[in-house]
């Protein structure tokens, strides 16, 4: 082995150690987030949906969720559809949003509460959207009639529910800012785009945001209370500046 190869191995060793450390932290601190991401990637690779659209597969209707699937008795689709994306391009936002939102929630709230919140938020989003379309599809509302036959896939509703719940662990004034940002995002997306995913996101955030304190749990909330006094002082200062 020449000196160049030895130097390359020595240079690569620290990076290998860093990668192992990061992997260990992810597995230890974010086991739910890591596991779901690995399942998504494994299923996408095994079925080919990472590079070919799920919508073009013969078994698309057997795994995707929506009002038609539930009306036809495919009750398992809210589970199976959560681990796919409609097309390869959709895998990017689905995986990134799940990593960021669920990972943040798991870090701040703990694995059990983050997993429960994401699963409940996903079901509320999927079932709430299906119920909305079921109620309004024959009401003469063109939007509902056009959207009712649609199917969807992905874990984005559960991810947004985690983001909404995790805001309860933030210190003021960032808590209000992020909550306002989430509300603006889901409302504007629903009003101006109005896709099935947008309706699911609206339901998920509407479910998780008011219950954020309960979903996050007392330990996570207690960690932020020590910072609440400083947050209140900031608001008083802003109010005083506004009055001057």
- What is the number of beta strands? 0
Count of alpha and pi helical runs = 14
Structural class: mainly alpha
The percent of residues in helical segments reads over 70%
The major pleated sheet works out as: none
CATH architecture: Up-down Bundle
Strand percentage, roughly? under 5%
CATH superfamily caption: Rhomboid-like
Q: What is the general shape?
A: globular
Q: Which consecutive residue ranges, at least 5 long each, have pLDDT under 50? A: none
CATH fold-level label: Rhomboid-like fold
Amino-to-carboxy terminus distance: 74 Å
Rg over CA atoms: 22 Å
Order of helices and strands: HHHHHHHHHHHHHH
Brief summary of the model shown:
With 244 residues, the protein is an all-alpha fold. It has helices at residues 3-29, 31-47, 60-63, 67-71, 77-80, 88-109, 111-136, 142-147, 156-166, 174-192, 196-208, 212-216, 218-225, 228-243.
Describe the protein's architecture and organization:
The protein has 244 residues and is mainly alpha-helical. It has a single domain (30-243), classed as Rhomboid-like fold (Up-down Bundle). It contains 14 helices and no strands. The radius of gyration is 22 Å and the shape is globular. The protein starts with a helix and ends with a helix. The mean pLDDT is 89.
Summary tags:
Rhomboid-like fold; mainly alpha; 0% strand; 14 helices; 244 residues
Task: Give me the secondary-structure topology.
Elements: H1 3-29, H2 31-47, H3 60-63, H4 67-71, H5 77-80, H6 88-109, H7 111-136, H8 142-147, H9 156-166, H10 174-192, H11 196-208, H12 212-216, H13 218-225, H14 228-243
Helix pairs in contact: 1-2, 2-6, 6-7, 6-9, 7-9, 7-11, 9-11, 10-11
